[in-house]
Amino acid sequence: MLSKEFTLTNKGGLHARPAGGLAQLCTAFQSNIKIEMKRKTADAKSILSLMTLGANTGTSITIVIEGNDEREAMNKIIDFLSNLVD
Question: Cα(6)–Cα(57) distance, rounded to whole angstroms?
C-alpha cells in the first residue's frame, strides 16, 4: 500500500473537469485508489465520489493506493495533479 499527501494548487481544486480527468486516469489501473480529505474518503475511479469531497485550492488530500500497479498509478496521479491548469 502506498500513501502520499498532496496539496491542490490549481485554481478550482477538484471541480468537474479535473475530477473527471482523474477518474478516467484511475480507471486504467487495477489497484484500489482512494482520495481522503479530512474525514471523507472518495473512490478515485468515480467522478461523483471525487466531487463530494469538495476539495478546493489549497486543500490537502491523501492519495491511498493498494494493488499490483500502485507505484505506476501513484506516479501518474501525482503527475496529473501537479499539472492541473485552471
Answer: 11
Q: What is the DSSP letter of 30?
A: S
* Overall pTM > 0.85: yes
Backbone angle region of 39, left / alpha / beta, with phi > 0 → left and psi within -120 to 50 → alpha = alpha
Catalytic position from the list 10, 12, 15, 46:
15
pLDDT tens track, the chain, 86 positions: 999 999 999 988 999 999 999 999 999 999 999 999 999 999 999 999 999 999 999 999 999 999 999 999 999 999 999 998 76
Active-site residue, 15 included: yes
Q: Are 57 and 11 in contact (CB under 8 A)?
A: yes
Cell 493506493 -> residue = 65
